[in-house]
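## retry 2 of 3
previous attempt timed out at serialization; input unchanged, resubmitting
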Amino acid sequence: MKELDRYMKHCNLVFTDTLSRSDFCQVGFNPDKVEVNYNDSITLLHLISSFNELYLLFQKEYEKLEKLDLGKRVEVLGFHQCTLDQNHYRFLILYINHPVITKHEDTILYLREMNDDIKPFVTNNINRNPDDKNYYCEDIQLNSEIAQKYLDLFEKYSSLITLYHELKNASIFGDGTNYIFTSIDHCESNLLDGLSNFKISFGSSYFNTEYFVDLSIRLGNDFGIDYDNCRLVLKNEKVSTDINSYHQILNNVYIHKKYVKKIVS
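## retry succeeded, writing output
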């Protein structure tokens, strides 16, 4: 499909930072004569498959983890560690709906470790601003041995937590003409409850002409393209295409690592 090949070349020139959108506006410019600089760039397939591989490893270990009884619904907000005044801290931050560890309707748990001692607390403000109305911060007691295992596991997979939050519902590239959006399941999805779908959408719109690619990928052990929920628009027209075209797109469209530098090496 010549038009698809031409458009993928356009995407690679832009998404790898080989050219900027202004380059395409030059009089007499011919993108066919420009070689794509793939240095420090990865394919869309690499981005998604890296996430899935890490997610499967985490899921396997999390299922075996002895669980703390925290509440009805638990979501991971982040993992952090730092050294301050010669004290080493690790924090696992969890949102809990209908918690059993405090009387509040919902809360944020800081599963905190300082110099190997577990010192957790709950609060209603992730920024810990005591001037907020109804602010609270309460020390609580948890099983230290299990809490330590939580911290060890989430430290091991801290890059997955970052990756999940970076890609869950995000614009990872945009210059006003070209864009890439990603989403994982839906707005209320939860890493700890399991994930099923990764969607990546990218396109270009200029001079009343639109190009659009919508790729839906199954996550988990059944990793692969969900063809029924993919879409391709070239020059304003939806294109009926075979499954090989979607594989071609995933394997041959690149993005520079700097746009996902927090999450991909």
